[in-house]
Amino acid sequence: xxxxxxxxxxxxxxxxxxxxxxxxxxxxxxxxxxxxxxxxxxxxxxxxxxxxxxxxxxxxxxxxxxxxxxxxxxxxxxxxxxxxxxxxxxxxxxxxxxxxxxxxxxxxxxxxxxxxxxxxxxxxxxxxxxxxxxxxxxxxxxxxxxxxxxxxxxxxxxxxxxxxxxxxxxxxxxxxxxxxxxxxxxxxxxxxxxxxxxxxxxxxxxxxxxxxxxxxxxxxxxxxxxxxxxxxxxxxxxxxxxxxxxxxxxxxxxxxxxxxxxxxxxxxxxxxxxxxxxxxxxxxxxxxxxxxxxxxxxxxxxxxxxxxxxxxxxxxxxxxxxxxxxxxxxxxxxxxxxxxxxxxxxxxxxxxxxxxxxxxxxxxxxxxxxxxxxxxxxxxxxxxxxxxxxxxxxxxxxxxxxxxxxxxxxxxxxxxxxxxxxxxxxxxxxxxxxxxxxxxxxxxxxxxxxxxxxxxxxxxxxxxxxxxxxxxxxxxxxxxxxxxxxxxxxxxxxxxxxxxxxxxxxxxxxxxxxxxxxxxxxxxxxxxxxxxxxxxxxxxxxxxxxxxxxxxxxxxxxxxxxxxxxxxxxxxxxxxxxxxxxxxxxxxxxxxxxxxxxxxxxxxxxxxxxxxxxxxxxxxxxxxxxxxxxxxxxxxxxxxxxxxxxxxxxxxxxxxxxxxxxxxxxxxxxxxxxxxxxxxxxxxxxxxxxxxxxxxxxxxxxxxxx
Length: 706
Known about the structure:
57 strands; 1 helix; 3 domains; Xyloglucanase_GH74; Methylamine Dehydrogenase, Chain H; WD40/YVTN_repeat-like_dom_sf; Ycf48-like protein; 4-stranded antiparallel β-sheet; globular
């Protein structure tokens, strides 16, 4: 408790140092290819069918006014872990969304949002207290709402969130009370992954409950009964209800392995025509596959029925080796393939494993699908598909405004003003050679596993090294000798490096020339003097992380670690700069003075520190300062980025702050910034008015500080 009391106090002190005044920055999307993150919901307005909302697991919400051709960000969330949308049946301006931080409502068609939690538990700084997957409108009374406690994404939360909760409001969401909880046999509330009212009925609701199957309430949500007769197992992922027949519904099942069996039983679609009392398989025409690997055995995560024609349904087999979208035109009695991974030209490598499906409520030919890396749209009933998160520009890509990247870094090539690289988790490498207008990855760039840092090893911009790895695993050192057009992976004992997949997280990298390169791997400092063919450890740490060179192509640099910040003049002997933050989690050099550095200690010792004239000075106490950038020409101009983890009701991250006086005073600068969890920020050395920052889930943004 004492630690979090300190957090609250330092956050308050942080706010009191902010200076009021005019907005200095206006952030806009960088338009790197989207999404790159997991999309959890798409909803087309029933009132205005060119208005579409899209949300992601930690991405926030995007709004399109032209059916996904372009997206703009929505604002106002406590945190950015998004569930499903529900449009008001009568008022086109009102729309609800479930989030891990509770229900939120928009009264302007999805542009701005307000948390609506009155009657739910107080906000928690430790966990998600009242996660909501979806808000439902009573079919006969739009003032009566039901909010269900769950997350179809199965988002993690510490503590004891109110999973399985059924919340009721009778005043349009102004106030809520707990109506019931769907529990397992041990009395524990269970995650509701999908729910819906039966058509035209205020008393009957259906719920898909993680691991427990289908539950039905016949008294408006007060009591619940499992109805799984005919289902082969209870691994349910989604449900869809007939828009006019209250007794007809469909469920999507994942795969399942019986006890003592070696193979998994494929999932499928099951249908009920008696309100869930009995179920039968609706899989005719599907090519289902069983293996001993759950990722390679047919499974279904989503099912959608067209509101304008309930005979039309769409689902998708999301097994990695399947990625097949199916359509039915006879209510699920038979299916035919409408898309696979070859059907869509897309920016990201993931297959067509679509976990979200939505129809235009007024036009069954308009279908949206989305999954772990992108969203697609069909305007002709599934005959053709288009990526609506990125668009092709010649042989490159450009985003449409909705990025889901969890950014790790942004780097400007110091020798080429038009060369920019953004790095992120998962499939997180994109480079632009036209100043950010279009983006590519390069041949041989392996997919996924995250990227953290890049170094430019020669003034011609041909030799580059990148660190690759995620969640503590080593993904190799990536090398290019042709300006990023092609890549090779350096890994394994033959190189003096960890093996691929070994628990040795790589992070930062710096080159003095194409031969001499340093990298932090598993908390140790590695060095090569032959262009990466052989590496050796030159310092054991502990937990060395970011390298900050005194200038590009320098043998002298600083490196942060658990014991503080070190300096080396030759890349071999490291000297600890005593008295600084322990641990130091980030370090950067003032471009105008190689003897002036800034360091952060994110969520540990906390704050922003400066080393100058042989001593440390603490400039700020905020625990959540994650990154700092110094203006290339004006040392008084500083930018700090704050970050927080996505596992409690409200974020402690406060976005971007600026100082024009060397850190004495600060002003927040979040106008246009969709997500306040900011992981990295950098000035453009060729155009110092330009700043790019990266967020934890909403990609990259660009602004000008004039």
